[in-house]
Specification:
Elements: H1 5-16, H2 19-34, E1 36-40, H3 45-59, E2 65-69, H4 83-100, E3 106-117, E4 120-130, E5 135-139, E6 143-144, H5 147-154, H6 159-167, H7 177-182, H8 189-200, H9 202-205, H10 207-210
Parallel strand pairs: 1-2, 1-3
Antiparallel strand pairs: 3-4, 4-5, 4-6
Length: about 210
C-alpha cells in the first residue's frame, strides 16, 4: 500500500511516541469538539461558578462541559415577591436561552425571590435546568431577612441593593450575597446555590424515572 509523506509521518509518530502522550494529544484536540455546552442565564460569576461546581459533582469525570454565561430576560419583576413568580422567572430565563442559543446541551435559569411568611420576609432561589427532552427544578432553602433589609425591599429596593445599603457593601450579589453576609460566610452564595443545582439535575441522571412525569 502506497503511503504519502503525511501518512508515513503519522505512522512514525505513533510508533515512537508513548501511547499515553498520543492519547493526551488526542484528548486535547477532541475536548473542544466533544465538550457539552451549558448556557447559564446570567453573566454573574457566582451563578456560573455554582453551576460549574454542581455539574462537576454530579457528572464527575464523565463528559466535558463548557459553561457560558449569557444575560437572559426573566419576564418577571426585578425582585420577585412570590414563589410562583420566582419559579416562572427561572423557567423564562432557561427557555429564552434555549431559543437564542440552539447549540447548547443544557440551559440553566436561576432566579432569586422573596416571600412573606407571617410578619417575616424570607429569601430563596429557584434553579431550572432544561435541554431538548428533560427539565429539572429545585428550590434552595429559605432564610429569614432582618427587619432593616425587609423594610427596604418593601419600599421597592431589590435584595442585592438592600444588602449593600445595610452592610455598606458594593455589588454584594456578585460575591457572597445576603446569605454570605448573614452567615458570616459560613454559607456563601455559591455554596447556597450549589445544592439546588445538583438537585435540579436529578431528572437528567435518572431519566428512566422521570420520563412520564
Amino acid at each position: 500500500m502506497h503511503m504519502n509523506q503525511d501518512s508515513r509521518f503519522l505512522v512514525y509518530f505513533y510508533d515512537r511516541v508513548p501511547k499515553s502522550r498520543v492519547y493526551s494529544y488526542l484528548l486535547q484536540y477532541l475536548k473542544p469538539i466533544l465538550s457539552k455546552k451549558v448556557y447559564i442565564g446570567s453573566e454573574n460569576p457566582v451563578k456560573i461558578k455554582c453551576t460549574r461546581i454542581g455539574f462537576k459533582e454530579v457528572f464527575g469525570d464523565g463528559p466535558s462541559f463548557t459553561f457560558i454565561g449569557k444575560s437572559a430576560p426573566s419576564g418577571v419583576s426585578d425582585q420577585p415577591m412570590t414563589n410562583e413568580e420566582t419559579l416562572q422567572g427561572a423557567i423564562n430565563r432557561a427557555e429564552n436561552l434555549k431559543k437564542e442559543y440552539r447549540d447548547g446541551d443544557y440551559y440553566v435559569g436561576i432566579e432569586g425571590g422573596i416571600q412573606r411568611v407571617g410578619t417575616q420576609m424570607e429569601a430563596y432561589a429557584w434553579i431550572v435546568i432544561m435541554n431538548s427532552d428533560c427539565i429539572g427544578k429545585s428550590q434552595t432553602s429559605t432564610f429569614q431577612l432582618p427587619p432593616k433589609i425587609a423594610e427596604l425591599i418593601s419600599k421597592g429596593i431589590e435584595l442585592g441593593h438592600a444588602d449593600d445599603l445595610v452592610f455598606k457593601r458594593k455589588n454584594s450579589k456578585r460575591g457572597n450575597g445576603a446569605v454570605g453576609l448573614l452567615t458570616n460566610n459560613t454559607i456563601d452564595r455559591i455554596e447556597y446555590y450549589r445544592h439546588a443545582v445538583i438537585l435540579a439535575l436529578i431528572p437528567f441522571i435518572h431519566k428512566e424515572l422521570y420520563q412520564n412525569g
